[in-house]
Prior knowledge:
Blueprint: H1 2-7, H2 34-43, H3 48-57, H4 61-66, E1 72-73, E2 78-81, E3 84-88, E4 91-95, E5 103-106, H5 112-119
Antiparallel strand pairs: 1-2, 2-5, 3-4
Amino acid sequence: MMKLAVRSGRLARNPAEYVPLPRVRRASKRYLTHDEVETLADAAGEYRVAILFLAYTGVRYGELAALRVSRLNLLRRRAMIDEALAEVAGRVVYSTPKTHQTRAVPLPRFLIEELAQMVVGKDPNDHVFTRTDGQVLAP
Length: 139
């Protein structure tokens, strides 16, 4: 804010420029066990595969929601992540992933059959994961 105030001419100089900042303490991360992931996925009902996909691929939710059938290669067990969606001002907006780079994400062998069942009869441009009414998952 101070830099912006200097740039816009509201301040002649930044009075906080040489103020030392406190060290950022990172909270320790907690990861679910395989049993906890399985329990969570089972509790998610129709979204079971989505929970497993998120847990075992590491993709972000917006990347999962934007994933299209054509971006799955089940024979090679890969998902191409090249798109993400977000909600901006109440509207769904498509963009590039956070890193702005396409990446191939390995898929766990145990998910392949369930993913294959999910995409049967879908158009290549259809989303893999949708709401129960077929609409795009909300971010």
